[in-house]
Amino acid sequence: MVSGRRGFRLGDLVDRMRFRTRGRRRNFIDEAATRPEDIPSRPDVRIRVLGALALVMLTGLSYRLWSLQVVQTTTFSKAVTINATRDVVVPAHRGIIVDRNGVPFVANGVHYQVTLSLNQSKSDTTLVPKLAALFNQPISVIENKVKNPNYLAYQPAPIATDVSPIIVQYLSEHSSEFHGVAITSSLNRLYPGGGGVGSNVVGYVGTINADELKALKSQNYFPTSLIGKAGIEQEYEQFLRGKAGKEQILVSPQGDILGTTKTSPPTSGSTVVLNIDQGLQKYAQEVLRQQILADRLSIDHRSGLHPAALNGAAVVLDPRSGAVLALASYPNYDLNQWVGGISQKNYNALLRSGALNDYSLQGKYTPGSTFKLITATAALNDKILSPSLYVRDAGTFVVPNCKGKNAGCTFHDDETGGSGSVNMPLALTRSSDVYFYNLGYLFWSSQRRLGKEPIQDMATKYGLNSQTGIDMPQESSSSVDSPSRRQLIHAQYPKAYPNPAWYTGDNLEMAFGQGGTQVTPIGLATAYATFANGGTRYQPEVAARIVRPDGTVQVRYSPRSLGTVPLPPAVRNPILQGLIGVVNDPSGTAYGTFHSYSTYDESKFVVAGKTGTASNQPGQEPNSWFVGFAPANAPRYVVLSVIDQGGYGASAAAPVVAKLFNYLVAHPVVSASVAPASKTTTTKPTLAARTRTTSTTTK
Predict the structure, then answer these.
(1) Is residue 261 part of a domain?
(2) Same domain, yes or no, for 260 and 285?
(3) Model confidence pLDDT, tens digit, residues 8-64
């Protein structure tokens, strides 16, 4: 009965469960056996579940939106701005360069250029071929300009510069055919007086190169920046360049420019006012050029040769301050070749011609008899002999106690018959070589008392063993031959200079400007200016002051003394008498030249000076020199000219100087104009490259 009892209980349990779940839940056996369409739907449950899920999602989305728009709004706003804007450099207007009277050497002129960005060229592939046809250039040339790495893909790159008004008008009228091509105006360098006037002085500008950009990266230069490459443009770059501005442009994801959001305007550069007189500069260049060309056609009556007259220079200084009034160099070049970029062909041609060399600063020439000023000063200061003592010049000098009869014992005068009996003044007037051979020997014989290099020491006081410090780049250094210099060169280059010995004959040649001595035109002009003013050696100054765009004086350069030369009356007067005789004494070496070329009253405007005829290699004509100052008793001008292999000083260089004095008498240089005192300030920046004396300006 047990089994029956268990069966009853199981059945009873099933019945009870069915009863309890009726109307609410079916037995799983019944549901499995029931067809799907017979099961009643329960939409209320599903709606509740879906609603709950939707509420959760909406709550999360709302929180996320609130977080983005409220909590993180600053962060994401900056991110969006960075992604949508780009900074473009706006170049500053470069400062101008004017002469002492305010006449522009360099100004700025409006030029048109055509630009196209890389992205725009890609969006319309017909643009590059059409531009190539318009400018008559190969397609590859236009493509390379568009792909210029200095410009970003969305930044318009210049396709053509200095575009003619005809092309500007054509592009304006057909703008629909050149979508994306823009015409912009820019300020390029303009030369009102002509691109050749003072080109060696003012220099030129060009796009900054990789080395310059690396060196100046901290000074806010950019790959598209223009920078001074030579002359004043380079020396005073920090003042001329101005301060670049910026434009913040809005750029689409495709790289198209949508507009400008913010602009920081540029600040124009300052004006550099020079000590140079533009009229004098132009005349000096022309006189030098004409004389060199004429010299090439002449014949040296002694050698029978045509002088090569390879190059030359002319310098005009104010000996009272060191102000540079003119600085001419030949051959010269036209600065207009650099406007818009010089071609490689033209640049190579200028290199071959030597026109890019400034011979007034970089030319190094044996000085010849112009060096006698230094030897005479040393001789009278060291009391080697009395200036009134006469020495017989018969055309040759034989070194006392010289062993043998070789060429090293006998030295010849340029005048084969000699200059006769001469004292110090007459030896300078007639340029007696024998007299100065004798001085060289006397110095050599006085080594125990004076040392080995007394003449060289005096040359150093005159500045002829160094650079002058002129405010121009790439100045060469003058150097005077000496025992110590030869030892130094031998130590540096033992194979090229195996014999550093110094002999009696070396001292004789050095005493009258031959041997290994080489001086620059600016160096020798500075030495004569030192003598002319009574013994103060001033640093030559091309620039007078820097003026801001608003007219206030930013920097004013005062005369800077670099040293002195002892020139008491007992020393200076005999030398001055001899130099005056060179031009005014009938026996003077330049007397005939000045009487032929001078147009002024020589009794009222007395010129003192010295010729120089410096020997070169056999078969070459000598270097031709003349340097003079006037008025002799109160000098206002020092004028120098040199012509490489030009022949005799009196025949080639002296005419240039005589004509320049003609100009100066007719057009005297007046004091440089200055800004009104009410506009001056006390700001005094310094040049990084050199230590210079500046004076602040006051109200």
Answers:
(1) yes
(2) no
(3) 454 554 455 554 545 454 444 444 445 555 556 566 777 777 777 878 788 878 777
